[in-house]
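Contributing new records

If you add data, match the layout below exactly. Sequence lines come first and carry their own label; structure lines follow with theirs. Keep one chain per record. Anything else will be rejected by the validation script.
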Amino acid sequence: MKKIDQICIIDDDPTHLFITKKYVELSGLVNNIVVYKDGKEAYDSLKAIIVASQKLPEIILLDLNMPIWDGWQFLEEFLKIPIQAKIHIFILTSSVSAEDKIRAEQFNLNGKYLVKPITFGEIKTIFSEL
């Protein structure tokens, strides 16, 4: 499997954040993990990285239910930014709502909708598909 330079996790839940980070670390396939607690913080930081022409994460794991900006607000604004790099965005949420899954399809995420808690096997599958 290909080594990933950077992954971004956007999630406000400390338990799920700990689990996700641990599995990513255990994979041995990621050099750097960046964490944001809400969509607005992530958007502002990633936009600054784009403006500075720095390297963006290759993967974003995005929670939907967060304070300040939820995952939907992040997606709506982030996808407006013209980006040359290929970024794989996966929704990682506790929502099993059919409406959320349908809404996710509108963002052309191609089935990248995962329900928490993520498993080590799912992490390995994500990395193997890149």
